[in-house]
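Quarterly update from the structural biology core.
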Amino acid sequence: MDANWIIAAFVLIDTLMERLGHHRDVRAQVPDSEVILIAVVAAKDFQNHHERAVCIVRQTRSLSGPIDVTRFNRRLHKLADWLSFIATTLGAILRRGEVFVIESLPLPVCRRVRARRCRKVCGRASCGECAAKKEKFFGWRLHLMCTPSGIPVSFQLLPAAFHDVTPVHELAVVLPPGARLFGDKADTSAADETSMLADTGVRRIPVRREKMQPHAWFVDAIELGDYRHTIETVNRQCEKMGMERLYARTNTGFELKVLAAIIALACTNMD
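Predicted structure, tokenized:
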């Protein structure tokens, strides 16, 4: 664990919660900001393994007081809205420039052979396919929009069967008019690009498929190759956080780990 990173992340989370009107319970030995910090540290350094993160942080005496795993999980679930609020607010604060990239990440809940016995998600809507890895999975798909430096500015968690183009309009609403949104082949749709430009003023620049008309601007094709590295870097960071192997008993717990990973990604890639 990087002590400097932990301190910086704590100051950021604690300041945000204070500015957003959070009132600390004076009876709690460990403040809510430290509970959220443990979840973020678990995502960054322990592949979202909460029990391991609680034990290590407690042994290093990095907390204001004692806390066990059961108490941590209960308090973290009560702070679910705050995790979502912090992740969204960080995206709004760190949203700079006019260039952004979008990517979708497969988040399996279980293996396909166990799909019929899964109690968290069910149905064909949860059956998806990862074209990059040429494999099918069962669970969710995270649609993530980032800055060129890899800071998440907008995100949405949808069932795996939903196409990559489905949430793009909603994610791009927060972008300034005239912004450019780079993506991969899964985001290619000429009709959708036209409607998105007319509705939001955002120009989407995906990787063209074979036999498709190339981009009108030669510069777009050049920049597309450069910004693809950002997508690959974000993918590697998310894989390192164990986002493709998340374990949770409930959908709420699964979503909490995803939100903690998004906050950890923002704290890691910010200047």
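The first strand starts at residue 99 and ends at 110.
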